[in-house]
Design goal:
Strand content: 25-35%
Helix content: 10-25%
Radius of gyration: 19 Å
Distance between the termini: 37 Å
Shape: globular
Number of strands: 9
Length: 161
């Protein structure tokens, strides 16, 4: 009788420890959600090359961090460029890298929620070049969007690779 009970405790502890290592949306709340009309986008000199995409985003629905419209577009085969548009102010914030080559390829490599500042991304950042050279296609990278920037939290490596 004791062996199954102890085994159950070990399994429960392992599951709890594993879940505690993965950042949770609830730990990064947004507070009040913006429910006003979307602002006209503020196009900077850098943004000019992407003004059509930004204007399209301005017609979208808020879906990230309380007042942002999360937007991605292709930059090659299985490659994405990402920005968020503040629906309240019209400001654009770019993810500081591209995302590509995630596995499984048919899945969505990003996860986020309206009521949280947490962003989860799976795959290679900047095609695993430079500071991201250790990235694997199944890695999940967690970022918090706060004070106008994406702050790296941690990378969770797949147990399969």
């Amino acid at each position: 009788m004791r062996i199954p009970f102890i085994l159950c405790l070990v399994i429960l502890f392992a599951a709890f420890a594993a879940s505690a290592q993965v950042p949770q949306y609830e730990a990064y709340p947004t507070g009040k959600l913006f429910d006003g009309k979307n602002a006209k986008p503020v196009i900077t000199k850098f943004d000019r090359n992407f003004r059509t995409r930004i204007k399209w985003a301005a017609d979208g629905k808020r879906d990230f961090a309380g007042e942002y419209i999360f937007t991605q577009f292709g930059c090659g085969m299985a490659c994405r460029v990402t920005f968020i548009l503040n629906a309240r102010t019209g400001r654009v914030f770019w993810l500081p890298f591209t995302l590509c080559c995630w596995e499984p390829l048919e899945s969505d490599p990003v996860a986020f929620r309206l009521d949280s500042r947490l962003l989860a991304l799976r795959g290679l950042r900047n095609e695993a070049l430079g500071e991201y050279q250790d990235d694997k296609a199944t890695d999940v990278h967690f970022y918090e969007f706060k004070n106008g920037r994406f702050r790296f939290i941690k990378t969770v490596r797949s147990q399969n690779h």
